[in-house]
Every structure is written in structure tokens, then in C-alpha cells.
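During the second half of the funding period, the structural biology subgroup turned its attention to how the target accommodates small molecules. The most pressing case was calcium ion, which had performed well in the primary screen but for which no bound structure existed. We therefore specified the complex as follows and requested a full 3D prediction, including the ligand pose.
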Amino acid sequence: MTFTVRRSPRRWGPLVAATLFALASAGHASPGSAAVDETQAQPELQTAADVTNADGLETLVSDYETRIPTEYTIDSWEPFAEALTAAADVVEDDSASESEVADAKTELQTAAEELEVLQSTFATITNNTFWKDTAGNPIYSQGGGVFKFGDTYYWYGVHYRGAESYLANPTKKYDDQVSFVSIPVYSSQDLVNWKFENDIATTSTSLGRLGGTMGDAGWIGRLGVAYNENTGKYVLPVQMWHPAHEGGVLFLQGNSPTGAFTFGNFQPQIVNSPTQATGDQTVFTDEDGQDYLIFSNSEGRARAFVSKLRSSDSLYAEPAVEIGRDSSGREGNAMFKLDGKYYMCASDLHGWNTSVNYCLDSTQDRIQGDYTDYYTMPGTQMDYSHVTQTGFFITVEGTVQDTVIYAGDRWADFAWNGIGYNQWVPITKEGTGIRFHSMSQWQFNATTGEFRVAPGNNYILNPDIQADRIIVSNVVGWTRTGSGGVTNVNGGANGSRFALQVSNGSGVRQQMQVPAGTYTLGLHTKGSGRVTVTGADGTVHTLNVSSSSGWTKRELTGIVLPAGTATVTVTGGSGNLIADQFSLVRQGGTDPGSATRHEAEGSGATCTGTIDANHTGYSGSGFCNGANADNAYAEFTVQASAAGTASLSLRYANGGTTGRPGDLIVNGSIVATTAFASTGSWTGWTTQSVTVQLRAGANTVRWDPTTADGLPNVDYLDVAQAAD
Ligand code: GCU
Ligand code: CA
């Protein structure tokens, strides 16, 4: 076979050519060698001599030995402690067989996965920044995935050389810097704070029977990790393009999630795919532990496939089942499961550029069954999926709700679209479909699965005019208000690629849903014009922009908006108005991130009734089931650092058919009455919030029922003090 670059030159061309040249001149494998025949793609199982699966188990055991019993429910701790002891015994037993080691690993991880923490917190995810690990170093992770093994999330991806250049200067395009440095792994319990663990593969990782090392490859990218219950190993399929073997799936495997990974197999062709290698790919693990490769075919990328990883060792992708087809091609293929349904989403063929998400979902709840046609995921249109390409999804099964995290890839190569590689936003079910919640800052509770808007969120979408990858006259997310000119042809305020330009008298507007509060509008401008913010009540707040020739920062503070739809309108003055870096952010206000949770069953609380745990969905270890009687109150002692306003949020469930009203008594005085409407069932929990004044130090907060039904069941009280 004569050598041809079988990849789209759009992505790999310059790089592959450069690498081949370097390899050829260094005397490595010649580009003229034939590709590995598919029939030769048998796994190279390691021999017992170089297998240290027991070492992997030892690593897991010593990690799990750091868990503290009092942080978990007794019911979940006991089986975990047993599994840990059993696993430690296997580590000690030199005669333990490979399968005993694998079983001990599986049992330990399964018990760890069932651990239920007593306390949970919200942690803040801030997009449009470069994320750092817990040691303060940049997180370099592209085109990978997050996988939960035991009670821990592991994030695998690729560290490319260009990621360093992009971090150093994000306002520049890097076309050919996808040379592979390593595959790092990070670990986290909350999906927000990530600890760097190790580089599990590097340019010197051996390619086994293929000869040479991963440093010889012209492309390494798009990966995931599957745990194989049979071998007790972690298997990492990744795309490789190699000058001697061309494209295919390289399988690496490791004995612990964070140890060194070694060569397992190389599979150029997946049966039923029309082309060798994969276009894009990710790994999806179903609830039953079965792992799949989700991919598109390499040339054209028109077809989407699901291929089972062979259950004996996960080192081979079995014949693929086609689940979707679109002749325009789709890439960044990734899967998630929500409420029993499988969703596969993908992007346009823009090469690491912004795109809406095109999804299809299973119509028979079978992963390799029938799917709908492609449709656009609601919420991804206004800013092209928060200015990203589809990367991967993380499904979090919370104690309160299931939430899917969309992990988008933003990359300088071919794109040059803003700051930060990783943009994560939540996806939830909405009606019979799903919705993407584009937010610049939000808070997530990985235990309960709940999320909320964070205080620093910018309510304007596509605020930096970065989502369009080309010059346009209809800027995505913004609606034209006049017949005059609109363009993004100008460079932006911080040296970025685009800014908004509107001509005299005409302009654009954007509508958004905001909670009630006082807001600040900010933007950078050149030229003159006007920006208004109109609240849901019709009140117009105007920022007049006087002429300036250089970029000038403008701000309008004290914008009081009621809850509902707000409209931001940008109008050009004489000449044009050029504007960039829009923001509409709540001022001060209450920071839900600083809320202190008081469980109704906690030591500082009084429950006139019993602490029960028979209705699921509560946080902590139970809830207060107040006696069905007038005055059967629930009371909390709340510390305030200073006198001032606080938001009290009481979580409750009322399975009765009528409300259970009560007085809210703060420090002995009735300050409000609350309705506690029916929530439909005793497992239907909801939160009612009231704003009150607290004094510095200890406060008593009591809910006192005013009817013979008593209170609803009370889960917890969250107290957030005003930030100012
Ligand atoms: C049911 C329910 C209790 C609840 C009670 C009530 O018994 O199981 O959790 O507190 O109704 O009506 O108050
Ligand atoms: Ca009750």
C-alpha cells in the first residue's frame, strides 16, 4: 500500500506532514510500510510476569484506607469496611490468583461507589477561565472523559503542546500544535476540585508489538477509560495515527486508575464502519458496567456507531451498530443516559470549533436499538454550546436528582474562540426532552445532583461575540433591531478576534431570564451609542455611550430588575458603536455559595416529633416528621457573623393534599407566615425561601404550624447571609 494521509488535512494535515518528516529524517519507521491488517489486530495480553494487578489493588486499598467512617452513613460504611478488609487480605496473600485480585478490586470499588456521605456542599464551576488543579497548575486535558471508579471521579484527556501556547496567549490561533505530550489523570470527589495524579502515558510509552513508542505517532487523541471486571484492569481506547500503521484505535491498559498504562492492542478497523479508524470517539459505560465505544467513521463522519468493548478484556471493539446518519457529517460524538434513555450528541464538522449540539435519543431504551433523527439540543443555539465543541458528558446520579454535565472543548487550534479549554454546563430533562443551561458560573452538589446559578454568573450569552467562527451580519444570540448594518468584522477589546459593530440608529438585542435583584451592566466600547436594560416590568435603564476612539470600559450600576425577562438593547450612535465583553451580573445580593446548611436531624435543631428516614430524597440522615398538631414546631439555632439580611431556605415535603401553614418566628417574633403548599408526595421535596433580619451571634429560627395538621416533613434549613 502506498502512503496516503487518510485523515482530513483540515485537522491533521500540517501536523502529520511535519511529524512524518521528522520521523523519516530520524530514521524511524518509513511511511511506506503497510497498515496493520485487521486480522492481525489480536490483543497482546501481558504475561503474568509483567502483570502487577496486585500492586494496582494495593494502591486502591491504601487510597480507600484514608476514608473517615464518621463522614458516611453507617449502613453504607459497613459493607465498604468489609470489602476493604477483604481486599487488604488479598493484597497480603502472595498466592492470590489473578481472578481473586480482580474480584477484590471489583468488590471494593462497588462498595465504595455505594458510600453515602453525610454532609454535602455546593462547589462553584467558573467557565471562561483556564482551570487549575488543586496544586495550582494548569489542567491540560483535551478530548477525554470523566469516569467514576468507586467513590472517585477520574478525568483523563490529552495534554497537547499547543495547550501551553494557548494558555500563554489565548488571543491567537495555533494551527499545528497538536503534538502529544502525555495523557494526564486527575481525581476528584466533587467534580470541581481536581488533583493531578499522574501522566499515565507519555511519548515514551511502548507500542508493544507495533514497535517504537507513542512518541512516534502523528496523532493521539479522543479517549476514555473502561474498567474490565473480568481482568480487573482499566482499559483506555484512544485514536492513534501512526506513519507505519495509519489510523486505528490504540488500547492501553493499567492496573490502577492512576498508574502507568501499557500497550494492550491496536485495532485499525471496526467491523461495519465503512472506513479504517474512527472519526471521533468517546467511551460510554452503562449502568450494568458494560462499556461501549461511541464513534463516527473517519472519512466524512456521516455515520454514528455504538460498538461494545469485548467483555473478556475490553481490548477490542466488537462489530459496530449504526445509530445515526447525517450526510453533512458529525463529530465530537459522545453519549449519556438520563432517565433510562440514551442520548448521543455531536457537533458540526468545524474542527474544534463552536457548534450547537446535534442529538438523537433511543426510542426503545436499548443502546444498540433504534434512535430518533438528529435534532438540536435546546439551549445550545444562543451561544453555540457556550462557545465550544461537544467533548463528553458526565452523568451524576444524585440523591435528589440526576444531572448530566456537558463538558465542552474550547481550543485555540482552528478556532481562537475565547478563554479556557473546558466549559462545563448542566443538562436536565425538560418536559419530554432535555435542556442545556448555558451559564458562565454555577454551583453543583455532586452528592445530591442539584445545581444553581452562582452569584458571579453573567446573564448575557455570547457576551464576547466569540461564538461565530466567521464574519457574519447576524451575530448568534443577538437579534437585529433595525435595518442598519451589524457585523462582527472588528477585532475585540482584549486582542480577541471579534467585536460587535452596530450602525447609527440600528442595533441588536438579547432577552434573558433573570431572578429579581440589583444588577450591573458592563461592556467595552469604541464609538458612540446607547445600551439599555429593560426589566420585566417595562422600566428602562439607559447607559449612554459617549464617543471614544480607543477601547473604553463602561458600566451602569444599580439596575433593579424584577424576576422575569430582561432585554439588553445595543444601539449605534453617529458613526458606529463597537462593543465587546458584555456582562450583566447581580450585585452583592445573597451568595448561595456561602449558605450554611442546618439539617433538621442535626444537633443544633429541635424537632417536635420524630426523626424519620422512610421517604427518600432527604439530605443527611433523615428529616423531621413533626407531630400532627398545632404548635408542633421545628427550630434551628443559626449563627450570624454580623447583623443584617439573610435568606432562609427551608426544604420540605408535604404529601398531604392541603397546605400546612406556619409562622416563622425569629428570636421570638413572628416575622412571616409560610404556606408550605402540597408537594404531591412525601418524596417530593421542595424549598421555600424567606428573607429575614438576623442579629450578630446566635439566633433562634422556629417554624410553628398554625393548623392541627402540623408542619410538612422538614429536611434542612439553608442560611445565606447578604454578601455586602
Ligand atoms: C404520613 C407520612 C409522614 C408524614 C405524615 C403527616 O404518615 O408518612 O412522613 O409526616 O403523613 O401527615 O404529617
Ligand atoms: Ca408529620
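Two results from this model are relevant to the next phase. The two ends are 71 Å apart (CA to CA). Confidence is low (pLDDT under 50) at residues 1-51.
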